Amino acid sequence: MLSQIAPSDDLVFFRPHQFLARENERPEALYEILEGWACRHRLLSDGRRQITALYLPGDHCDAIWPLSDVCRDAVVTLTNVRAVRRPLGDIHTLDRPKGMGAQLAESIERQSGWLVSLGRKTAVERLAHLLLELFERMRRAGLAYGQQCALPLTQTDIADATGLTAVHVNRTLQSMRAKGVLEFHSKWLRIPDLGALRDLAALGPHDQV
Amino acid sequence: MLSQIAPSDDLVFFRPHQFLARENERPEALYEILEGWACRHRLLSDGRRQITALYLPGDHCDAIWPLSDVCRDAVVTLTNVRAVRRPLGDIHTLDRPKGMGAQLAESIERQSGWLVSLGRKTAVERLAHLLLELFERMRRAGLAYGQQCALPLTQTDIADATGLTAVHVNRTLQSMRAKGVLEFHSKWLRIPDLGALRDLAALGPHDQV
DNA sequence: GACGTTTGAAAACATATGTGAATCCGAGTT
DNA sequence: AACTCGGATTCACATATGTTTTCAAACGTC
């Protein structure tokens, strides 16, 4: 799973809310997350915030960089993070880490899915979609246990990812809990019935999460 | 501007609402639009529709394909379209059309901008953002005349791109017209004051449109 | 173990945007 | 000129979601 380590690579640690990249600066390194979560986001001048991607263990922050000269979005850790740091010069000139092309494609497709979610889905559908996606990604990373996984996001983070307010995320999660389609407390998610949640997410039969 | 034409390339024509690619099928060709507009979109089972990208003259539909085996989104023409068709086999094995890497990067960044728009912006901000973006792209393609350009979208198309309803798009455009920040009728857009519209769009100083 | 800070929960209220239906208008077509 | 037909417009009304505030529980830190 982990890409090969080159001599110039470094094992690095971050605390929550540290920047891996700042808006409108040239990215100088690519990080492969080993442990912890991070996100890509943009801020509007009045403080409104939209998370544009979430990074879980195994993900590259940001796979898109090798294509671009300047970061449009900032990348920030959400938890403690342990990662491999690869200077970007190498990325441009040398081989890319294995599997990064696939990860780039996945990340782009996921972004389309988020566009549909933010543009056309209700609060319940957005939350079902996001939580399902995160659970599936954790499962593929080998970090799910049965129907449960860690989910170290605050309700504010979830709101900023789904385009809702924290208050409404709280309301909606409550009602979903009441209906028994999910359990979520102290950063731990349990999905009793994957199929039921999938229906709530308004996903097509072919939609990858 | 136009990429080089190879022997296997074809000049092709489409009428409005024809498919360049269908959901969940393998794309077999890449199209470079010479004239006309197209879009990428997804449909939910109940008919809700979200446009995930717009293609103007000079754009490749879809620059993302070479990365991916299956189309997640359908690509549909919005007007009459004249395009160059390039079989995708060539794309994978041969050189990519010049400038496509840059176009891919641009397209990905634009998608982040749309996420912010759909997730966090008001109707006025979304419309200002979209119209500004389209005007700028038309200008860069050499298709703007002074402060005007063609904009062959219906209000329903605009609604499906901005995540609003057609009725609300209409309402909001009216109010913007009344304020004098734009003129838009019979598929023709005029922006008297770029700066004013940019302010309305809630774009940061560095945001590319 | 006490403190301050962050997060989750709740309630009352405000509003931007959606819904459904009718009408109007302009461009083609016969 | 009379007919269509898709799109634009308008209206009255509904509601999902946002706003503001308050409080309590959980958490990290010294």
Descriptive report:
Two copies of one chain form a homodimer. By secondary structure, chain A is of the alpha+beta class. Helix content of chain A is 35%, strand content 25%. Chain A has six helices and twelve strands. Chain A has helices at residues 88-93, 100-120, 123-140, 155-162, 166-178, 194-200; strands at 10-14, 19-21, 29-35, 38-43, 49-55, 60-61, 74-77, 81-87, 144-145, 148-150, 183-185, 188-190. In chain A, the strands form three sheets. The first copy, chain A, has a four-stranded antiparallel beta sheet with strand order 1-8-3-6. Chain A has a four-stranded antiparallel beta sheet with strand order 2-7-4-5. In chain A, a hairpin with a 5-residue loop joins strand 4 (38-43) and strand 5 (49-55). In chain A, helix 3 crosses helix 6 (194-200) and helix 4 (155-162) packs across helix 5. The longest helix of chain A is centred in the middle third of the chain and has 21 residues, at 100-120. Chain A is globular and about 50 Å long. The interface between A and B is large, with 39 and 39 residues. The structure holds a DNA duplex (30 and 30 nucleotides).
Give descriptors for this structure.
homodimer, 209 residues, alpha+beta, four-stranded antiparallel β-sheet, DNA-binding
